Amino acid sequence: MATTKITADVLASHLRCKYKGYLKLAGENGVKSEYETRVATSGQGFRQKAIHTLLAGKGIAEAARGPLLTHRLLKQGSLYILGATLEDADFSLHFDALKRADGASPLGQFHYTPVLFHNGEAVHQDQKRLIALYGHVLNGLQGRWPTAGLVIYGPECKMQRVALTATHRKAGQVLHELRAVREMATPPPLVLNDHCTICEFRDRCHVQAVAEDNLSLLRGITEKDIRQHNRRGIFTVTQLSYTYRLRRKSARKADTSPHHSFPLQAFAIRGKQVFLASLPIIPAEPVCIYLDFEGIPERRFDYLIGALVCTPASTEHYSFWADTSDQECAIFRAFLDLAASFDRCRIFHYGAYEAKSLKRMRSNPSLTTGIDRVLTSATNILSLIYGRIYFPVYSNGLKDVASALGYAWTDKAASGLNSMVWRREWELTRSPGLKDRLLTYNRDDCAALKLVADFIRGASNQARQNGPDAGGEANRGMQVAFPPEAAPQFTRPNWGTPQFAQSDFEYINRCAFFDYQREKVYAHTCDRVVRGRARRKRRQGKLNPQGSIIVESSRCPECGGSEVAKVSERIFFRQFFDLRVKATCVRRVYKRVGSYRYRCAKCGRTFFPERFVNMAKYGHALKSWAIYEHVAHRASFENLEETLRDVFSLSVRFRDIHEFKSIMANYYKETYFGIIRSLSQGNLLHADETEVHLKRVGKGYVWVFTNLEEVLYVYRSSRDGKFLEEMFAGFSGVVVSDFYAVYDSLGCAQQKCLVHLIRDLNTQLLSNPFDTELKAVVSDFGCLLRRVVATVDRYGLKKRHLGKHQREVDRFFERLAGNCFSSDSARAVQERMLRNRDSLFTFLRYDGVPWNNNNAEHAVKQFAHYREVTDGQLSEAGLMDYLVLLSIEQTCEYKGLRFLRFLLSGETDLDHYREKSRMHGGKETEVQFSPLERGFFDRANRRRAPPVHWSGSEKE
């Protein structure tokens, strides 16, 4: 291609379309659209107006004018430089203006910032990116990157400051791409986009795209989607059509909004038929109004409202025209009066523009009531098409869909973009022909909308009644069908009772149940089965208590009086069950606890001792053993009930065992708070989070925080991390986490998990095996990290040994920042690493800070095992109780303690318990019993111990 210099036109073209930038660099020109011609014409007068605004209040002598922009011209220090052009080996770039700004540079104690003239109504992303490119070129000339640029835009020549500090690297990347495109022997891939409607090469590119059957013909498909399809060997719309598979619906909840399927759209184009993925419902009313607005979005001004009113007796079109923006409220009021004249009507529009305009006009109090009524009865036809109906067209635009159904616009050049050009020309000339052109275009849009709505209504009704292929008149000759079903996939059968269409089948199925047959059928067939079930159902023999305890009282719990006496000699007994856990065995404990009824002579109250009234049926050791099995070994409560019955002959209902969880969680809440305090006062914190699904709540999140000894699990209903600042207030250490940005709110040093990073980099490499730029970046990073990890393996996490790698890290990031990549994957990796530069190698500056987050991931894995069998079945309260106990269990594991022995000890302070274990020579302490329970294990009373009387004040 010709070696053309990079001009302002090339820069603007490349930002909008890389293929257009290539054609401009090759020196080619196309046929400018009516819109582009008008913009270029209006730009000539706008330039003088913008210069006048820029120099307002300044003398013309303070502005330098020169054909060539040189270092010498900049060094003169003029306040403004107007219309200068930079000429060098790469650029022939015209600057609208330059403005002097304070700040040292090689020029002196000042530098220059670029000024861009834009005759549009608003400053968009294209203008911001373009002025950033000007800033990058200016940086090479003056030796300083400008911090901001200035854009003068609109008929009123408004000024907007654009910050350029964060765009330096991206601007350099664009210039690098342009230089690479200029040297390319082959053009970049053709990708159609939104700019094509006004591009001078639109016809040429469209013909080429149709010849290639280019994927970008499908409106809405992104460049990223196209690249993903290309990696799979799919390059054309026809190839994409063969990849359609019926989307599997979510088993957890129904989709609230349909998803657009590009393969199904391509399938419709290939088959030249309409597919009904689902059947939309169009509300039916006696009066239908088909609505279309014409306006100038940048001005927020609607000048024409078209309404096609269809009643059972007639069809009539209404047009409401506004000469100026002052008449906008009047035309809206006229339309609302028209709509209010019908008691019941349904209003249809195509797209969201009409609804947004109506909501914008609600700010006028006189229109609010009428607009609310219109919005209530409004239906967006495009929302009924999206994801539900697939026409054999590349776009769901009204013009494409209606044209496929046979509608033809009166003016072949009519389009939404050209209508804005016609309106602006009408404002200058007041030509009746232009007004008629706009009114005709608006009338055609309303008629096309009615045609599309009628087609959808007819096709949907026919599909519900007789199938989509029945009848062709309502389908306007279009073949309508349902999407082909996907091939059946193997799934395991679901357990449960099926729904039978006949009651006879239901009776037969019920008689085939396993339990029913063994109780009813085999009772007449096999005696051994009957005897076996009888033995299993035989009630457990009566347990003999191992002793009794009599609880006495000498003081009234109400008034504190000491004159109490027994009402009678009758003893009231309650049962007490527990376990005796030793190092070599576990045995059952069953005691009877009794008490007399007392009467106070002072207040006359009859009472039982509080110790007797508040006595638990199950002891702490039994609760500890059950919780240990549930938390450490993930035994279900139903299995624990069976184990206690078979092994210890204890009939403990699983509901009672379920209550043990909340009782023990409440007992150890201080231990849980102690873990939080220990983490907050430490100098290291690992953090991670994972999903969980709760009964009647839905999705929630379990957060995990740990260091080298404590582990904390926290439940939150969302992934919002606002609670972190309050929970870990005062933490001043290092947080090791993944790349979730919420952890940055802690306001302390961050270390991102490098294992997460290398996994993502490995995935990128596997997805892009031929990307040499990506391979180079990843290889450089891998070599650096390997040397650092080798030092960690040899010396441990000590900063005096790791600090030597800091220079290597700095050099790596300097090389990375200086590179300009053409590969999207390499650029994504570059941006990610530079964005997290300060948190990737934090561990080099601290002692004992790891470079990965495996402590938190290990803790998350323990909860994930439990989640596999309980996901969707837990309540919120039950999960929070479980997390308290799991936090203690994992903390015991990290501290090297045995969870069961800690529970049996009755201690609530983990550190105090560990110190007691050390004092006993490393032997963890045995169970500590209350005075009431101490007599349960009298070795001298092995068979039937006599009652043990425990007396004393209930308040002592």
Q: Helix/strand/pairing class, anyone? A: alpha/beta
User: What topology, given as strand order, has the largest sheet?
Assistant: 1-2-5-6-7-8
Please tell me the total number of domains: 5
Taking the sheet with the most strands, its summary is: 6 strands, mixed
Distance from first to last alpha carbon? 100 Å
- Helix tally equals 37
Low-confidence stretches are 251-255, 486-491, 925-956
Q: How confident is the prediction overall: mean pLDDT?
A: 84
CATH topology of the largest domain: Lambda Exonuclease, Chain A
Strand content: 15-25%
- Number of strand segments: 28
> Could you name the CATH class of the largest domain?
Alpha Beta
- Cα shape: globular
What percent of residues adopt helix (DSSP H or I)? 40-55%
What Rg, in angstroms, do the CA atoms define? 40 Å
CATH architecture level-2 label of the largest domain: Alpha-Beta Complex
